[in-house]
Amino acid sequence: MPFTFHSHSGQFCRHAKGTLEAVVTGAIARGLLVLGLTEHVPRSRAQDLYPEEAGMTTDDLHAAFDAYVAEARRLRTKYGDQIAILIGAETEHITPDSLAEAKQLRVKHGLDYLVGSLHHVDEIPVDFSPETYDQIVQHCAGDRSEMYRRYFDSQLTMLQGLKPEVVGHFDLIRIFHPAIPGVEDPLQTAEIRALALRNIDYAISYGAVFEINTRAWKKGLQDAYPQRDILAEILQRGGRVTIADDSHGAQDLCMHYDRLHAYLCDMGITDLYYLRRAPGGGVEARVLENAVEHEFWTANGFVRSGAACANKSTA
């Protein structure tokens, strides 16, 4: 419960802020017991660089990732008696080569785990801006259902290819979908919902943990990722869930965890899963029972002292 398994720093990510060490010390100050460090895997094509990376090359991205792992290991040694630190990466899946590159990177650095995320549809960024999101819509001839179909098909390919321990912001494709009358959410249709459920079932089959990602609230969505209709499906199928702030610097640590606690209660979630390093290498998922009652919530002011979680499910 007092953990996050998805984080970034300005030291190694151009759209984040601050140093990696500030993220670690901030997590210690918050009382987190486990912190997962997950800078983005480097992209290998110049056309995939973002505007914020102007002046950089793909070689620069790879060098930065090497430096990230070295710094993460230094910090784990320095602060290991105060917090458990896992060293991982957040995936990209832009082209078929992306998955092979992620596998090679994991082996090269002996990464503890992967957060399996999808940020592109047909090589166009999903979450960079409303403008690039609209480019995908136009690329799909204005057919939002086709856009969602391609997203979930690509997500399945990523899950099958990498089997990431944590499934990142499962329904990110909703990030800029307009919530206006007359524009249907494709995930409410039987066809697209079936694709999402197919992916959920596959991730459950190999033992993945789904993150409940609070960054969705920063983007103005009603719920965390996944939104409650999809989260309900994950829970009904016996999926295991964890929590993550997807922080982009120390200032984002535990962002919206007050709303998160209420969301967990609304969805009837009492237990949460966390990762820990396994004796034989890699990580293993362990359950923290009755996590919503942990002292972390009140110690950080996310819940009033003495307040109880009703644990009523709206799923």
Kindly estimate the percentage of residues that lie in beta strands according to DSSP. 15-25%
Kindly report the average pLDDT value. 94
Strand order of the largest sheet: 1-3-4-5-8-9-10
The CATH superfamily label reads Metal-dependent hydrolases
Distance between the termini: 21 Å
Task: Count the E strands.
Answer: 13
Q: Spell the H/E element sequence.
A: EEHEHEHEEEHHEHEHHEEHEEH
Poorly predicted sequence stretches spanning 5 or more consecutive residues: 311-315
Structural class: alpha/beta
The major sheet is characterized as: 7 strands, parallel
CATH architecture: Alpha-Beta Barrel
How large, in whole angstroms, is the Cα Rg?
19 Å
The domain count comes to 1
* CATH topology assignment: TIM Barrel
Specify the number of helices. Answer: 10
Helix content: 25-40%
**CATH class term:** Alpha Beta
Shape: globular
